[in-house]
Amino acid sequence: MDAFFASVELLRYPQLKGLPVVIGGRRREGDALLPQGPDGAGPSSVPVADFARLRDYVGRGVITTATYAARQFGVGSAMGMMKAARLCPQAIVLPVDADEVRRYSRLFKSTITEIAPVMQDRGVDEVYIDFTEVPGGQREGGRVLARLIQKSIFDRTGLTCSIGVAPNRLLAKMASEFDKPNGVSIVYAQDLQSRIWPLDVRKISGIGPKAGAKLAALGVHTIGELAAQDPQWLVERFGKSIGAWMHRAAWGQDDSPVVTTSEPVSMSRETTFERDLHAVHDKAELGRIFTDLCMRLAQDLQRKGYVARTIGVKLRYDDFRTATREQTACNYTADGATIRQLAGQCLRRVPLDRRLRLLGVRAGTLVRRGEEPGPSARTYGQGRDAQDAMGTGQLF
DNA sequence: TCTGGGGTCCTAGGCCCA
DNA sequence: TCTGTGGGCCTAGGACCC
C-alpha cells in the first residue's frame, strides 16, 4: 500500500501570515468570537493591531495550535495560555471557532475524496489516503498526485497543507513532518536507515511523553536505537502489545489499512470550571453544570442516532488527579434524565473531599438507535458502593 | 498561575460462568 | 462435589492523539 498523510494548517487570515498567532484559550460568555471588519467584511479585513494579544489574556486554557512564527518562541499545542504569554506576549490570540473549523475540515476532506476516495479521518485537520488505486497515483513516487491535492485544497479553502507519501501510514505520517507547512515529502522503504532512524523516538506517532521518557531512561533516544533492541527486551518493559509494536514501528513496518468508515465507541462532555468548585459549598452550581453536561450528552447521542448502555463520570481535583467511575445498565438510553440519574449514582462512589476543577459525563457501549440487543442478562456495578448509591438523593 | 475537550486503545484486576 | 482454568465482560486508570 502506498499512503498519503496530509495535514492542514488551519489559519486563514492573510493579514496574519508570518506573525506569531496562537489559537486556543477558553471563551467567556459574551466574548466576541473575532473582531469583525466594516460592513460585515469579516475578520480578514481587520487590521493586525485590532486583534487581541496573548499578554492581555486572563484565565484558564491551553493553546490548541500555533503558527510556525509563534512556535519559534517555544509556544506549542497543549501549552497553558499563561506560560505561552510569558514566552510570546505579543502573539495574537484567536478563539477556537468550532463551527468554522468543522466547516473547513469538511471542505478539506471532501476536496480530497473527490480526487482519492479511500481516505481515513484522523481528526479535524489530518487524514490518511490510500492512493494505490488512484489513476496517476504512482507518478514520480506520488509527488504529482500530492501536488494536485495540495493545489485543490488551497483553491477551495485558502489553506496550506503538508503531505507525506510513503509505503505505509506510519512512514507517511513521519514524512509529512519533513517539510511543513506546505511541502511534499516522499519516503521510500530504502530511506529507513538514512531518514527515519536518526529521528527521535518521539517522532513515532504513538510514542508520547511517558514512553519517550522511559525509553530515554533506558538509553534509547533515536528510532535507530529502538530498532537495534531485542523485541523481547521491549516486550518485558512495555508489555506484549506495545513492546512488539514499538519494534515493528522502528523498522518502518505497519500493515494497518486506511479505514474509511468507523463507528464511535463513546461520546462525552466535560468542562473545566472558571474556578475550582467544592461539592458542598458550590453544590447548586455543580448541580446545574452536571445536569447541563448530561443534557448536552443526551442531545449529542440523539442527534447522531446512538444509544448507550454504559454511563460514567470523570472528575479532576484541584491537584489535577483524575477519578472516573462508570456503570453499565440493563437498558440502552439516550435520555437526559436517565443519563443524569445513572451518572449521579456514579458520582456517589467518588471521594468529594477536595475541590474540583473539571467535571465530565461519558456514554459508552454505543449502538445505533433501533439496533439495541435485548436487555443484558447480567448487570454489573452492583457491589457495595453501587448499592449505597441506589435510591438515594442526588448529590449535587 | 500551569495544564481544554473529545476521542481511542491498552492494561490489569475482579467477577462470573462454562 | 470440589477445584482449576480460561474466556468474556466490567471497571478504573493511564497513555496517547488531534
UniProtKB/TrEMBL annotation:
Keywords: DNA-directed DNA polymerase, Mutator protein, Nucleotidyltransferase, Transferase. Gene3D superfamilies: 3.30.70.270, 3.40.1170.60, 5' to 3' exonuclease, C-terminal subdomain, DNA polymerase, Y-family, little finger domain. The keyword Transcription regulation does not apply. Residues 1-208 form the UmuC domain. It comes from the Bacteria. SUPFAM superfamilies: DNA/RNA polymerases, Lesion bypass DNA polymerase (Y-family), little finger domain. Residues 368-396 are annotated as: Disordered. Belongs to the DNA polymerase type-Y family. This is DNA polymerase IV.
